């Protein structure tokens, strides 16, 4: 099934490794796209990348999507050559058993596995024990001396997974938030001459507290900010409709709130108006918990009107995150149409 967007770029972004604070590989790819799509590219001290399209007026809009993915950092190498790690971002430990990982060392990337004791030897007490990230042990398949030579405390660990088409969806690791980063880059490429100056911001360290966006909000001082992030789509068997948040295939999600922000109602209304006038499939999002870069801009450098567009995604914070091709396309279209119509004439004051 043909996808009407650059799937190869999406695959490159999602398969790249980049935990909070170490987004280098993703940042390099973002810069390459920006070089062809924007007027100016710069990187700040934290590693945020800003691609600016100069408008004909003096109104400025910031768009943000984060580059980092959840992962781990090595905190200890045991005498037997196994790795103990500390989490970078919020993991559900239930999904970690027996997963393949990539350990990023000074001498190159190493494949490893997160060990899992066979059920045959577990006691009843062990069977009932809840999984915890601090119990994760990584096996590199090497003897202790070789591991000690290759791996150091501070080396990074990401999940090893490919990104593939699955029916009408895309599935893989790090769709949070690379699928939205991709949508932002595609919008930058598709945007025609704009009256507003648009700052496309690829941010860092979102998964550990929106740190990149908060710092960027001091440096970039827009009149309006719009963030892109994935949101929960628990439209699967066994989840009641009131807890599904969004549904795959129903369009881009216009955020009303999450655990970090209540979006400006006038910005939200404008997003809805644009979606309706352009006949772009969309749905509304009320996310009970979790934060996004939207909050990073809302009250940094003074209060700012903020809005957010989300891509519905199943199985968040796993290695099989799944998004629908039509929701991805709708998000690109909505962001582009919204930015194209921003000329400073819309009043977002409350």
Automatic annotation (TrEMBL):
CDD domains from the UniProt entry: M42_Frv (cd05656)
Keyword annotations for this protein? Aminopeptidase, Hydrolase, Metal-binding, Protease
**Keyword flag Metal-binding:** yes
Q: Does the keyword Hydrolase apply?
A: yes
Entry-linked InterPro entries:
Peptidase_M42 (IPR008007), Peptidase_M42_aminopept (IPR051464), Peptidase_M42_dom2 (IPR023367)
Q: Offer an example of a GO molecular function term for this protein.
A: metal ion binding
Cofactor(s) essential for the protein: a divalent metal cation
Q: What does the record note about the cofactor? A: Binds 2 divalent metal cations per subunit.
Where do the annotations place Zn(2+) 2 binding?
A: 176, 207, 317
Identify the residues that bind Zn(2+) 1: 66, 176, 229
Active site, UniProt feature: 206 (proton acceptor)
GO terms for biological process?
proteolysis
Annotated family: Belongs to the peptidase M42 family.
Q: What protein name does the entry list? A: Endoglucanase
Q: Which organism is it from?
A: Halobaculum gomorrense
